[in-house]
Amino acid sequence: MSLDLSLVPDGGLHWLTASGDHSGIVLSSRIRLARNVAGFAFPTRAREGERLRVLHQLRDAAARVPSLRAAAFIRVDECSSQERLLLHERHLVSRELAGLDQPQGMAAGAGAIIVTGDAGLMVNEEDHLRLQVFRSGFDIPGALREAERIDRELGTELPFAWHHEFGFLTACPTNTGTGMRASVLIHLPGLVLTQEIGKVLQGLQHMGLTYRGLYGEGSDVLGNFFQISNQTTLGRGEEELADQLVRVVRRVIEREEEARRVLLRDAGYIIEDKLWRAYGTLRHARNLPADEAMNLLSGVRLAAGLHLISGLSVYTLNKLLIFSQSAHLAHAEGRTLTEGEANLARAKYVRTVLANEARLPG
Amino acid sequence: MICEQCKELEARVHLTQIVENAVTHVHLCERCAAERGIETATPEPKHPLGDFLQAVQQQAAQLPGDAARCAYCGTSLRDFRASGRLGCAHCYGAFEQSLRELLRRVHGSTKHQGWQYETRDPDMLSREQRLHDLKSRLQKAVTEEAFESAAALRDEIRGLE
User: Fold this and answer.
1) ipTM of the assembly?
2) Does residue A32 contact residue A151 with C-beta atoms inside 8 Å?
3) Contacting residues of A for B15, CB less than 8 Å apart
4) Residue B13's closest CA among A347, A313, A195, A239?
5) Distances in Å between the alpha carbon of B13 and those of A223, A240, B36, B43, B63?
6) CB atoms A212 and B45 under 8 Å
7) pLDDT tens digit string along A103-132?
8) How far is it, in rounded angstroms, from Cα A4 to Cα A130?
9) Is the Cβ pair B85, A171 closer than 8 Å?
10) How far apart are CA A258 and CA A316, in angstroms?
11) Scanning A127, A178, A354, B87, which has its CA 20 to 30 A from the CA of A47?
12) Interface contact B108-A205, CB threshold 8 A
């Protein structure tokens, strides 16, 4: 099966548009709800036939749900490893669903996604159903409303596994109850450069929140991008958990803004030089490894936020972040690339985009 | 730069200290810094799953009232301890005692306070819930060797299925 992402509305990338609140600092907001279909073993325990049954039931239910009518249905288990990596880089599927840690390939029915606009369903990941709603910028309440609507509509079409005391039942008890993970993808270079980040991250853990890298659980913190999310899912309602995240993230944004002001005030020319050097490298390098690109893009993003470099939109920088990754480069070139080839292709791609975008002051 | 203390690992923690009016610079690897009780700038992310698995491990003994295996999917508490994943919704009934304790430790509560769930077809769900209850009772009866009530429960389950 050849993956055709043009079938997916907006290519599943509407959340990159940098249209929401605080979009210079918060790239995206996400609500994820974990659900299981009553009467079937959870995916890791289920037999192949059970997983396929769940897959078909969910696909049929999604077709009857108004908000998912225009959705594209993709069998992740039938995609090549390159295509699965592409879906993962685009944040449409988790590392686990993409089977990236299973060199022997994926079991049948192990995964599918149903995507429309800002919403996606991952099927047969750790749970039968992982509903995700993305929003550009800082908009947790908007994502929560949309997630609630789709959840209610789907829940009338399918019986969810439910317990009168424990709430929604999930494969891992860390998700039991609401099954909800509310998260923001946030860029905090100011706090990293002023070395305040340790305190801020420790503070998060006291507030019932946790953090991860750009690509979720187990991923490294690269380019000063962090995912901040709620840690517990049981004992408090969805709105309350989401409110708590919003309150704390608002404080983190304030501290990041404050750190940026301090940096400019106390180390103006050092920062300016460092960020222009990052820009210079991206604009002219001929060989660009992925980690280096991520860190340089982080610097240029900060420069744009500080108005040191003008004429660069946050949207372009968001797109560069996703489209400069290996599987996206390979997809654009129409063939698989070795790591060395990808580094050359990345440098060329970034150069071209920045040259087209540049309207630079002297 | 090599760590001053162990002289083996790369020094990643660079401290400027003032001791008796003299400025000293200390360069340590992260392990030696941790040994001296010096906090590094970025704390290790706290993995909820890691804490949770630790809690699972500590829950060594099966609590009274818990079944040895889930009658529906065959998962045992030992399987759960190894993977951190339950096999199906019925496991929540089979291992209710252990899980209630675990949920309290992980979330600080066992009572869902969020959205309530109702299906369009209430019969379908109440049947599910009923089957679930019956199966938990069956397991309990088997554990307690109350074979007569176990037989009655088994017939009732067959009827519903």
Assistant:
1) 0.83
2) no
3) none
4) A195
5) 20, 39, 12, 13, 46
6) yes
7) 666 666 777 778 777 888 999 999 999 999
8) 22
9) yes
10) 25
11) A178
12) no
